[in-house]
Specification:
It is built from seven helices and six strands; from the N terminus they run E-E-H-H-E-H-H-E-H-E-H-E-H. By secondary structure, the chain is α+β, with helices and mostly antiparallel strands. It has one domain: NADH Oxidase (3-Layer(aba) Sandwich), CATH 3.40.109. Strands 3-4-6-5 form a four-stranded antiparallel beta sheet, with helices on both faces. It has a two-stranded antiparallel ribbon with strand order 1-2. A hairpin with a 2-residue loop joins strand 1 and strand 2. It starts with a strand and ends in a 21-residue tail after the last helix. It comes from Rhizobium favelukesii.
């Protein structure tokens, strides 16, 4: 068992997994592009089916001319706090193998992109940053804004930055600003059978 960050695992895992969480309170300071590219470099080393590497990352740095456009592509409730991140990233996955005209789709493209997101989140922590993944983004508008063609899927957004005090958040978000816990492992891992729960 491992304890860290007000969390406790059932088995002896590396504390990094407990120290990674998804805060909303960010300092708003700018990030060097090289620091962000280090985090994205780690993400792109994730494993993928047939080494297709279907993930794509579209990013903007706080203070850049694209920042407002990226913030506007979040749903309103996420704009409220994510505007104080140091970088915003949209994760897109390529849903086909080889020549799309042949119609060969990749069954695991979203799974693989999710693995890359996990690597991104862990490297962010190792680099002194926090990453918050978001489903609350304007998927269709992102597809149009960046001219993302058919065969690619807008998966999620990521806000990345340094941790600020939760007092910078609205009252509603202050109450939510704690590392979340997990279900017991027995509710999600089943030996030799599947359990509906």
């Amino acid at each position: 068992m491992t304890k860290s960050n007000s969390r406790e695992s059932q088995y002896p895992i590396n504390p990094l997994f407990l120290e990674r969480w998804s805060p909303r309170a960010f300092t708003g300071e700018e990030i060097d592009e090289s620091d962000l590219l280090t985090i994205l470099d780690a993400a792109h080393w994730a494993p993928s089916s047939a080494n297709q590497q279907p993930w794509r990352f579209i990013y903007a740095l706080k203070g850049s001319e694209d920042w407002g456009k990226f913030v506007d592509l979040l749903v309103e409730s996420n704009q409220e706090w994510a505007k104080n991140a140091s970088a915003l990233i949209y994760v897109v996955s390529r849903g086909f193998n080889g020549d799309f005209s042949e119609g060969r789709t990749s069954y695991t493209h979203s799974f693989d992109a999710g693995t890359a997101w996990g690597y991104l989140a862990l490297q962010a922590r190792l680099s002194g940053f926090y990453a918050h993944g978001m489903g609350g983004i304007k998927h269709g508008e992102i597809q149009q804004t960046f001219s993302i063609p058919e065969g690619y899927r807008v998966e999620a957004g990521v806000a990345l930055g340094r941790l600020a005090d939760k007092s910078t958040l609205s009252q509603r978000n202050q109450e939510r600003e704690v590392p979340s816990h997990r279900k017991p492992l027995s509710e999600v891992a089943f030996r030799g059978k599947f359990i509906v729960n």
